[in-house]
């Protein structure tokens, strides 16, 4: 399932563009003078730029001894004007050093002479008090790469074997509330492979997850009206993941 800041520019091009006429000695003196001036201007520019980039000063984990998966952090930072400010956010406790929190799997299902399908899952999410329609997803374990985690989670949640085609940069779902991050892994599932004929799930004891196959040409309409999905009929409340809807919208715009 990283944003990069801007960089201050240098002044060497402006120095080199000056020279004028009057001989090599005069040009050399002029360039030396301009070089000294440019250096001071660069120092001033760097100092000015520094104050226009917000900076985190301190992150402090709050006492949440009863929480296993999530913690709260109090953050102190300086904004672009240099003013000290406070922020609060939720963070995952499971992230390993230098690793990403989770992966979301965009799995396209292909079978010879048939329309493509998108593989989704549905599960009850207590935080939304609804059954949520989502991409298969999960946390990255131990020393796994995002790709390894994606194929493992796909197999566990849906039973299907996939082949990784590409992986996104590190993404943030709700940066105003949380620093949790993810990478999206694009996978192709070959339905002509015998191992993908009605494969069993391999769920944890506390997981109840329903795999769903949505035809690509019906995908956007189903995200607008998830109650029309046969496997979800009878559910009191159904919600759609924001990432999932954004993906559906992108598909719609691409048509």
Low-confidence stretches: 1-33
Question: Mean of residue pLDDT?
Answer: 84
N/C terminus separation: 25 Å
Helical residue percent band: 25-40%
Task: Explain the overall architecture.
- This protein starts with 11 loop residues before the first helix and ends with a helix.
- It has five helices and twelve strands.
- 26% of the residues lie in helices and 30% in strands.
- The protein is globular, with a radius of gyration of 26 Å.
- The model is unreliable at 1-33 (pLDDT under 50).
- The strands form two sheets. Strands 4, 5, 6, 7, 8, 9, 10, 11 and 12 form a nine-stranded mixed sheet that branches. Strands 1-2-3 form a three-stranded antiparallel sheet, with no helix packed on it.
- The protein is an alpha+beta fold.
How do the helices and strands line up, and which of them pair or pack?
Layout: H1 12-17, H2 24-51, E1 55-61, E2 70-78, E3 84-92, E4 102-110, E5 117-125, E6 130-134, E7 137-139, H3 146-158, E8 163-167, E9 171-172, E10 181-190, E11 210-215, H4 219-224, E12 238-240, H5 242-254
Parallel strand pairs: 4-10, 6-12
Antiparallel strand pairs: 1-2, 2-3, 4-5, 4-7, 5-6, 5-11, 8-10, 9-10
């Amino acid at each position: 399932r990283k944003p990069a800041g801007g960089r201050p520019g240098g002044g060497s091009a402006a120095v080199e563009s000056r020279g004028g006429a009057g001989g090599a000695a005069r040009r050399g003196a002029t360039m030396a003078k301009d070089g000294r001036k440019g250096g001071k201007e660069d120092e001033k520019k760097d100092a000015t730029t520094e104050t226009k980039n917000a900076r985190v000063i301190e992150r402090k984990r709050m006492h949440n001894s009863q929480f296993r998966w999530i913690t709260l952090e109090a953050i102190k930072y300086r904004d672009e004007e240099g003013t000290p400010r406070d922020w609060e956010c939720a963070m995952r406790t499971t992230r390993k050093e230098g690793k990403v929190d989770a992966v979301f799997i965009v799995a396209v299902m292909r079978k010879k002479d048939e329309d493509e399908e998108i593989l989704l899952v549905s599960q009850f999410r207590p935080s939304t008090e609804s059954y949520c329609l989502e991409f298969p997803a999960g946390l990255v374990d131990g020393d796994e790469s995002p790709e390894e985690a994606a194929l493992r989670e796909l197999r566990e949640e849906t039973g299907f074997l996939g082949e990784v085609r590409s992986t996104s940069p590190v993404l943030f779902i709700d940066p105003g509330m949380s620093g949790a991050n993810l990478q999206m892994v694009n996978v192709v599932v070959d339905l002509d492979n015998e191992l993908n004929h009605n494969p069993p799930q391999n769920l944890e004891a506390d997981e109840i997850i329903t795999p769903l196959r949505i035809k690509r040409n019906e995908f956007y309409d189903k995200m607008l009206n998830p109650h029309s999905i046969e496997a979800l009929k009878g559910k009191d409340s159904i919600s759609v993941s924001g990432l999932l809807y954004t993906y559906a919208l992108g598909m719609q715009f691409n048509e």
